[in-house]
Amino acid sequence: MLSPDVPTTRVLLLVVLTGLVALLVYRAVQKDRNEFQRFKRFERTRNRQRMMRKWLLESFAMFGGAAVVILLLASQFVPLFQQEVGRSPIGVWWRSLLIDTGGLLPGFATGVAVALVGGTIVAVALARRSESVPMIGDIGALLPRNRPELVLGALLSVNAGVVEELLFRLAVPALIFGATGSATGAVIGSVLLFAVLHFYQGWPGMIGALVIGALLMVLYLATGSILVVIVAHALIDLRSLVLIPMLVFGVHRVRV
């Protein structure tokens, strides 16, 4: 565990940050894009399932492993980053807003979240007669086509919620803050890196990931709970990889 009081800590974290960014960008631009293009050409579910299992294991190992390593090195910067954000003008305004409104604001936010989830379910249910569902980014090929793929889609969604939030909302901001001393840079840099991760989905997918990543970051900073954003992320992915395939295409009834 690196101490903020040691002069060499910033240099070491900067080296780790540079290596991580280079690895993630290369992976997104080369490996993920090429594999996804190959995945789109698969017709046999056996090949599709094999690739989905590969992505599941690799994501868990790489993103989860990177998060663990970074937190072992820079865990002391997590509360420092949160404190710095709390001292910013936006952080001060948000804290005063919570105090002024008492429980009204959290209750309103909860109501909005419930309305969004309910509205999504209703919208998907109404689209069941349609042959296609509008999506942000090139993710149509990812939608499960049968029950075994649906299970893998659920596992991928939950895994992404856990490892990607631990990495991009908890570990990477602490790493950037420890390396640069800038809370603003930590917020912006981690959100941009999360967007680049979705390069394989094309520009619409990257922009969508940028917006979602920013909203998840706001949610994390507002609540201070990584568990909340893990659940939110998992639900977003479950909507695409489980809810839509089930309600619109009925893939849970396809055994093979």
Overview of the structural elements:
- With 256 residues, this protein is mainly α.
- It has one domain.
- Helices cover 79% and strands 0% of the residues.
- Helix 1 runs antiparallel to helix 2 and helix 6 runs antiparallel to helix 7.
- The longest helix is centred in the middle third of the chain and has 34 residues.
- It is globular and about 60 Å long.
Secondary-structure blueprint:
Elements: H1 8-40, H2 45-74, H3 77-87, H4 89-101, H5 104-126, H6 147-180, H7 183-196, H8 202-223, H9 226-247
Low-confidence stretches: none
The separation of the N and C termini measures 49 Å
The percent of residues in helical segments reads over 70%
Task: Let me know the number of strands.
Answer: 0
Strand content: under 5%
- The assigned structural class equals mainly alpha
Biggest sheet features: none
Q: Averaging pLDDT over every residue, what do you get?
A: 87
Query: Could you say which overall geometry the principal axes of the C-alpha atoms support?
Result: globular
**Radius of gyration using CA atoms only:** 20 Å
Order of helices and strands: HHHHHHHHH
Overall structural domain count: 1
How many helices does DSSP assign?
9
Give a short summary of the structure.
With 256 residues, the chain is mainly alpha-helical.
Keywords, separated by commas or semicolons:
256 residues; mainly alpha; globular
